[in-house]
Design goal:
The chain is α/β, with parallel strands linked by helices and 250 residues long. The protein has helices at 17-28, 40-49, 64-78, 101-129, 150-170, 187-192, 195-204, 213-224, and strands at residues 8-12, 32-37, 55-58, 83-86, 132-137, 174-181, 235-238.
Length: 250
């Protein structure tokens, strides 16, 4: 991709799944990369897996103090931040009637409030420098209804509207877009689904498989690049055609 060499990139939820694949992709493009994750063991592993990583920072995106401290450290070690991949998220599979207030608050704290904390911190850094790109991980769950994930779905719909509002307010200095994956074979997905459940999902996706994290990473790389300079306020689905035929809720 054009324009990614030497870009300074921060990726939240960057120690596994889509975040780790995205870190690897930006390193391949010649970018400087820091990942931010709340799992110290995962941070240790990705540092070993990606030895050219600038740093793996320990922080919980739901904690504003930790976010500010980690962002300051990213600026210190990279000299600034040009691109934010706002990717950290969690999900808990359960019936709507069984969601506890504690679970609801936990999912919203990470998936929506955490996205806001990191995005605002990044934007306050980028505006004075006059440029920047913020890319946020939404989901097809924020576009159409899915059973068993009401809290998660609500947060991803919130990320989509937050993205559009940010794009309007932060233009022309900062471009803001969201990527809305469908089913991606990540450790989080693998932990929640049996083999039979995964196969059932694959049968309803037109391309007959889950996405690979590397495929989502490629979309992030494009949207951060100079090839996407006129793209802002957009939500890109990457779902193998799943939502094209309204199959998601079946």
């Amino acid at each position: 991709m054009r324009g990614l060499k030497s870009k300074r990139v921060l990726i939240t939820g960057g120690a596994s799944g889509i975040g780790a694949a995205t870190a690897a992709r930006f390193l391949e493009e010649g970018s400087k990369v820091c990942v931010l994750d709340r799992d110290p063991e995962a941070n240790k592993k990705i540092t070993n897996d990606l030895p050219t990583l600038t740093a793996a920072l320990n922080a919980d995106v739901a904690n504003l103090t930790e976010v500010k401290n980690a962002f300051a450290e990213a600026i210190h070690v990279m000299g600034g931040v040009d691109v934010l991949i706002n990717n950290a998220g969690i999900s808990i599979r359960h019936n709507f009637l069984d969601i506890s207030s504690e679970e609801w608050n936990k999912v919203l704290a990470v998936n929506l409030t955490g996205v806001f904390y990191v995005a605002q911190t990044a934007a306050r850094h980028m505006m004075p420098q006059g440029s920047g790109v913020i890319l946020q991980t939404a989901s097809t769950n924020g576009i159409t209804g899915y059973p068993y994930y009401a809290d998660y779905n609500a947060t991803k719909a919130g990320v989509i509207e937050l993205t559009k509002s940010m794009a309007l307010e932060l233009a022309p200095n900062i471009r803001v877009n969201a990527v809305a994956p469908g089913y991606v074979l990540t450790p989080m997905q693998r932990a929640e689904y049996t083999d039979a459940m995964l196969d059932a999902v694959n049968q309803k996706i037109p391309l007959r498989r889950h996405a690979r994290p590397e495929e989502v990473a490629a979309l992030f790389a494009f949207l951060a690049s100079d090839d996407a300079q006129y793209i802002t306020g957009a939500i890109y689905t990457i779902d193998g055609g799943e939502t094209a035929g309204a199959l998601a809720s079946r």
